[in-house]
Amino acid sequence: MDYSFLSEYAVPIVVGICLCVRYILKKMIPSDKAGRYIPLIMAVLGVGLNAWLNMDFTPGILMGGMFSGLASIGLCDALKNLTVKKEEKDAE
Questions:
Q1: Which of 40, 76, 84, 85 suits 92 as a labelling partner, its CA being 20 to 30 A distant?
Q2: Whole-model pTM?
Q3: What angle (nearest 5°) sits at the alpha carbon of residue 43, between those of residues 13 and 24?
């Protein structure tokens, strides 16, 4: 299945803000139980930010906010995996 249509819903500002907020939450609350709620927090924050940026609320804005908020989680994990793998290669 082709997921390229989702690229039109990505909002870089929302992704960046959610990425920073996720980082802060992970550092403030190191508990594993707190990690269960981070996707929910990022989705709600993404929708709120996207609605605030557009000063409107439509299904497209809802989708864009949720997608951007959840994409920040994937981006953070991907960056973490890349840096860990690079550090492992440098150690060898």
A1: 76
A2: 0.80
A3: 70
User: What is the dihedral sign for C-alpha 54, 38, 80, 30?
Assistant: positive
> Predicted confidence band at 58 (pLDDT cuts at 50, 70, 90)?
very high
Q: What is the DSSP letter of 33?
A: T
Instruction: Single out the residue of 68, 54, 76 nearest to residue 10, CA to CA.
Output: 68
| Number of C-beta neighbours around residue 84 at 10 A | 10
66 touches 78 (CB < 8 A): no
What residue type is assigned to position 35 of the chain? G
Helix (H, G, I), strand (E, B) or coil at 10: coil
